[in-house]
Amino acid sequence: MSYAAILLSDFEHEMANTRKVLERIPDDKFEWRAHPKSQTIGWNANHVADLVNWLVCGLTKPSLDIAPVGGEPYVFPKFTSGREILDLFDRNVAAARSAIAEAKDEDMNIPWTVSRAGTPFFTLPRSAVARSALNHVMHHRAHLCVYLRLNDIPVPGMYGPSGDES
């Protein structure tokens, strides 16, 4: 089985779960934060929707410099409504699905770098970048689930029923 086939199966399951979480975030809670050192619900929702695009970048571009010297910086989304975030998420999921489907096994060991102004944050094989991007989505999705719980908003089940669904 190809790397793309394995990743695509996992991707489909995790993106369906992620969408269920994003659908539950009410627009009037975007500025809520669990602690002064925590990011807001809105920031996390934007980040989750955007991170899916990093999977596309990792599979289709040689590298990503988020603030290239003399170039255009990577634009992080700052949407203020659930509809806008879901639209971004759906576009990024469609693009990532296509990038995964087109990924070739022989390209999965090619090193890929994220940097800022030419200074690398990390360099990993593309296979690790793809896995890391999915893990990063799930990490911030977990934050959103906790934030939903703390705001008495029912948490959707993902690997079986949630406490709200049982």
Could you tell me the mean pLDDT? Answer: 96
- What's the arrangement of strands in the largest beta sheet? 1-2-3
| Helix percent band | 40-55%
Low-confidence blocks of residues: none
Q: Give the helix/strand class.
A: mainly alpha
Rg computed from alpha carbons, rounded to a whole number of angstroms: 17 Å
CATH class: Mainly Alpha
Kindly identify the CATH topology.
Answer: Four Helix Bundle (Hemerythrin (Met), subunit A)
Number of strands: 3
| Percentage beta strand | 5-15%
Number of helices: 4
Number of domains: 1
Distance between the termini: 36 Å
Tell me the major beta sheet: 3 strands, mixed
The CATH architecture classification is: Up-down Bundle
Assign the CATH superfamily.
Answer: dinb family like domain
Run of helices and strands: HHEHEEH
How would you describe the shape?
Answer: globular
